[in-house]
Prior knowledge:
By secondary structure, the protein is mostly helical. The protein contains four helices and no strands. The chain has helices spanning 2-16, 41-55, 63-82, 91-103. It is elongated and about 70 Å long. The protein starts with a helix and ends with a helix. 0% of the residues are buried. The model has no long low-confidence stretch (mean pLDDT 79).
Amino acid sequence: MRKKIICLVVIVLSLCVVPNTVYASETPPINNTAKAEDIPEEIKIMLDRLNEIKSIEKSSLSRLEKKELRKEVRAIKKSIKASGNGIYISSGAIIIILLLIIIL
Length: 104
């Protein structure tokens, strides 16, 4: 009896799965990249510094200099992310919010 129930549940779940098909669009996708005018001056300076660091030949640097560059890159990336205007919600928070909405 239990084996029949398990098989029935597996069949029902397998029938509920609907494959997502991807169709080629005729129109090109919209490019939402920020224009150079929209980027604040502080961010431009940070991005320029990141490009400078990428262009440096790191094989000629000492171990401590490489470590300092890594710290600087992390700090710049962290400040760029912090200056963003988005609100980020984790998936766990979304699930909790949905459960609260359903309960209430």
